[in-house]
Design brief:
- It contains one helix and seven strands.
- It is α+β, with helices and mostly antiparallel strands.
- A four-stranded antiparallel β-sheet has the order 1-2-7-6, with no helix packed on it.
Amino acid sequence: MAVWTLDFISDMDRMKREMERFLDEFQSPGWSLPFSRTSFLPGRAARGYPLLNIGEDGDNVYVDALAPGVDPKTLDVSVKQNQLTISGEKKALLSSVEPTAVHRSERSGGQFSRSINLPMDVSVEKIQASYQDGLLKLILPKAEASKPRQIRVNVD
């Protein structure tokens, strides 16, 4: 007959809380499974692809998307309201090698799509995009209403 101890019960309670926390994270928006092949990132923490740097100045929002190996013909950039979506396809690196002959494959391929909310509205018709050496560069001009304005203060 098994003897139930206080340690066993507290361990089970701790494990239950950890599972609940894990499931809460799993259900949050933008979360992807660890070891996700579509993230194109080896390791424990899956992140969105492509990796992004976003900055701004007074007139523009700048986005640099690290996307090596992506076929430029498949790249699609769109902005709807203030949501930027980048999608495309990355070819598998070892497409000419038989799957049974591959010893290790950490750089997978496939279709991807990533959407992010921009910090402000942009002028969609004036967006510039270029792709060179695996880096997608976007210049998104701010909408006039989003640009900072200098307001003159009258002193009486």
